[in-house]
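A reminder from the course coordinator: this example appears on the midterm review sheet, so study it carefully.

Given structure:
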């Protein structure tokens, strides 16, 4: 049991160091530096009744 627990602790230490190594090198842009370039969606006309492309079944807009 002691050997198993020691192995588990060693593995967790190794995984912790790997996660720390991976997460410290992230290129994260601070929120203050992000510009708002989002544009509003353009309205799209959907006819009242049209056929669904894959099934050729009529689709009725509600």
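Designed residues:
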């Amino acid at each position: 049991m002691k050997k198993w627990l020691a192995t588990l602790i060693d593995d967790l230490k190794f995984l912790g160091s790997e996660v720390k190594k991976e997460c410290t090198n992230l290129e994260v842009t601070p929120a203050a530096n992000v510009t708002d370039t989002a544009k509003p969606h353009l309205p799209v006309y959907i006819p009242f009744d049209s056929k669904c492309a894959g099934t050729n079944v009529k689709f009725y807009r509600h």
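The mean pLDDT is 78. Helices lie at 2-23.
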